[in-house]
Amino acid sequence: MTALLDRQNRIDSTPLPRDRRPMSEHAGKLSVLIPVYNEEKYVGDVITRVLALGPVVKEVVVVDDGSKDGTAAVVQEFADREPKVRFHKSPKNQGKTAAIKQALTMAEGEVIIIQDADLEYDPAEIPDVIAPILNGQADVVFGSRFLVRKAARVHYFSHYVANKFLTTLCNCLTNRNMTDIETGYKAFRKEVIKPLVLTSKGFGMEVEITAMVCKTKARTYETPISYYGRAYDEGKKIGFMDGVHALWYIFYYNLFKPLGKAGRLYKKTVNAALAEAKAKV
């Protein structure tokens, strides 16, 4: 019995591998950005689930993109009673990119992740997405719906084909082997995302961020996630024209924007910040 107890004590005192260390070791490091438009039914549940992640969450930055339903009232109620919830209401609807652009100016955490307000992505999986960053292995992590799958709703084949086409085209121009550039789960070290001034419209930020990040020396990882996609009659917003715009954005943000003054400055700023951070380790 003594030998068994001694063995158990040795096991319990052994440091966890880097990718298994508890989130409590990273208290106050994470900013969760939630862009929201007409999601009064779900946004409260999303915020509650994010806050349930515990001490790792420094703040939940919610930007209401001009909702016409009761979304703002729901979020304001959270902001009034929960210090971690920060709320900005835009006067008119300008699209997801504009909402994230605003949220980035407010974010103060060392690690930043985007969380949609419609529960297509489960906040309980955020620790899996940010773990490679917190453990010093990555600077950027995309949660992929097409890696070794977790739970995924059987859904529109046309969306699957479009996503695969856009991802493959983007990979040809970035020389990366990504599987899901349109994923809603994207996490970053603040040094990578804060300097990026978004200029696309609508849902264009997914391509813009991917293309611009791939022009830097940021270490980029993917991790498998679940996906609980909605049907259009359940409130899904992305449409055919968003795919057409994404096609244009892939060429623009891979071939033209990086060559301009703003693109060159972004790359220089990010690479210098990452080099400085590496030197401190």
Task: Record keyword descriptors for this entry.
7-stranded mixed sheet, globular, 281 residues, alpha/beta, 7 strands
Write structural notes for this entry.
The chain has 281 residues and is an alpha/beta fold. Strand 2, helix 3 and strand 3 (85-89) form a beta-alpha-beta unit. The longest helix has 20 residues, at 261-280. It starts with a helix and ends with a helix. Residues 1-20 have low confidence and may be disordered. It is built from 10 helices and 7 strands. The chain has helices at 2-13, 43-51, 71-81, 96-106, 126-134, 157-174, 190-193, 205-213, 240-256, 261-280; strands at 30-36, 57-64, 85-89, 111-114, 140-144, 186-189, 220-224. It is globular. Helix 6 packs parallel to helix 9 (240-256) and helix 8 packs parallel to helix 9. The protein has a 7-stranded mixed sheet with strand order 3-2-1-4-6-5-7, sandwiched between helices.
Brief account:
Helices cover 43% and strands 14% of the residues.
